[in-house]
Every structure is written in structure tokens, then in C-alpha cells.
Amino acid sequence: MEWKEYKIGDVCEITSSKRIFYSEYEDSGVPFYRSKEIIDLYNKQEIATELFISEKRYKEIKDKFGVPQKNDILLTSVGSIGIPYLVKEDDKFYFKDGNLTWIRNYNAKKIDPIFLYVWITSEVGKRTLEILSMGAAQAALTISRLKDAKIFLPSINEQRAIASILSNYDTLIDINTKRIKLLEESARELYKEWFVRMRFPGYEQTKFVKGIPKGWEIKLIDDICQSVGGGTPSTSNDNYWGGNIKWVTPTDITSKHSLPLLNIEGRITEAGLKNSSAKLLPPGAILMTSRASIGFFGICKEPVCTNQGFISIIPNESYLRMYLVCNLMMRKEEIVANANGATFLEISKGRFRKMEILLPDVETLTKFEEKCNMLFEAVYNIELQNQNLAATRDRLLPRLLSGELKVKA
Known about the structure:
3 domains, Helix Hairpins, alpha+beta
């Protein structure tokens, strides 16, 4: 069947929420989402709900105006434009007017909500929404402009077939993401069991001296690793950019949900590395964000360098790596507490190096490294699967949405 052009506003309702005032915020109750939370949900990150409304107020709105239901779409509409969230069946929340646009009440004969969600995430959808949001001091996507946006649609059965193919990839990615969370939680529990609850191998026969096992020591972080900063080559010199050296920024770390660092967008040249304070780090170095968003971690299996928003940690011994990263991840609040700064918080290398750390004996550290590294490798391989799944989906997406690749409806 031939694809037809529609205005999005003709095949579904495009609206917003009822206004919630500052005085209506509560310390607990029904989560109240803004663009920040929707972006985190889109990126499959844990969200830290900061605002709530009361159950009573939620029920009043639900009974009178409705609340987000399964397969409704919320779309960021100010600042970061066009990031969607497809509402799940068990979701219960309300959201901020103005920041988010609400798509609901689909014409079931003309458009499938999952097809629309996929279109929004496609390059065609992204370009369409970007063009619609131009022309203001701050990028904004108005409801009236979104209603007039044009979309080409095949038959509803073909839409569902396309959506099913693409959503199968997303389902596999979601399953893998849950596996990653379980594996990383296992690593955290292993660390707590051995080094917080003190139930490491052979602890029954261990003698304690001054409250710690014999052979364990209190050291400074500077005693057991190198800690180095990063840098940014001059952005006015094209010869420094677009090379083969991977250059990490904090966004590469904060936008992901696991320790292995696979997707690094920045690239600099040998000249850029040589003519800046960036330093080439060995494979397996621990990257820790050190300013603004402090205490996020990543490990890359290949040589990389970073901008100045990092303290990168190179253990003096290979058996220290997983212990160090688990220890530091458990101490995020302490790391942030050691930061200072007027414009934005930053922990200096000097302060970081002076932090104390409990150092177990080599045998215990080696056993922990082996067990924890097995978990890390499993997470890495699953992340690699997700990367390949996403790449395959993204190659299929434009061909399916253009009608180039036919599907059986």
C-alpha cells in the first residue's frame, strides 16, 4: 500500500500537562518529572526523583484531565529538543508543563504509537523536530508547530510490522541492560562482603591488629597509583582534531550506565596530544570525573586521553585495579566533600592523592581482582552486544521508515 502524508496533529492528540505550582510540591508521593528525568529514562539511566506531588492531587488530575498512560509519548520541548519517552504500563508519574509535550489518543486506524516513537528517534524525525524548533532565542518546540509537522505513514499493519522489528532490538538491548545491572550489583556486593563486612577468604583464621586484618595497611591513594589530569587541544587549530586518538569528555562517562567505556566520540591527533596537557593513558586506566559532575567512573580497554574534567588513575600493580575502582565508587560522597570551587565544584589532584585507603594483602587483592574482573569482562561483552544490536537497528531504521525495505504486514 502507498505511503501517505499526514500532519501529526491529525492522527493523535498533542497537548501538555496541567500546571503544578511550587506550593504543590511534596517530599514524597507521586514522582513529578521534568526534561531531566525524561532524558535519563530515554538513556536507560537510573533516575533520582527530586520532586513529588501528593496522591490526592494526582488523583484529582487523573479523574478530571487524565495522566500519562501506556504508549503515550512525552517529548522534551525546551533546550534539549525531541527526546522521547514511551510510557510503560506500570508507570505512575506526572510532569511539568512547558518543558514536555504529551502525545496521546492515537487514531488507531492511521498511526501506531510505537511507529511514531521510532520515527521521532530516527534521523528524519530528529531533523524535522530540529527545523520546527528553530527561530527562537532558546530552542523550543511548540505544540502548534508539532501539530503541523508532516509524517509519511504506510498502512497501520505495515507500521506495526516495522515497529515490531525495531522494538525487538530495543527489547534485547533492555534485557542486556538489566543483565549488566545485576552483574555490576554483584561486583558491589562482593566488595561489601569482603571489605566492608570483612568476610574475605580465610577471615576465620585471620588475626586482627588495631581493628584491621594483619598484613593490611592504611595508605594514601598517592602511594598505590598514579593520578593524572587531562587537557583540551586548541579548538582553533584544525590540525589538532579528527585524528585517531580517542579523547574522552565527562559526557562520555555520565551518559552511560556501566563501567566499560566503548562509545567515545572525541578524536584528536598526535599534534593535538603533544601540544596540550592531555596525556595518553594505558589500557585499563580508571577514568574519574573530577569537576561539576564528580565521581563518575569508566574503564577503557584501549589507550585514551581525556579533557581536564578528569582525574585518571593508573594503579601501580595490576591486581589493584578492580579494588581501587570499587573502593572509589563506594566513596563518591567523600570525594565530592573534598571538592571546592566558586564557579563549579572540582576535586584537585592534590586533595585526591591525600585521601586514605585501606589496602588489603596482595593475596586477597589478587583473588578479588580475578573474581571482579570476570564480572567486568561479562559486562564488557554484553555492552559490546548492545553496541552491535544498536548499530544493526540504526542501519535498518532509515530503510524501513523510507519504505525502501519492504516488510510483510
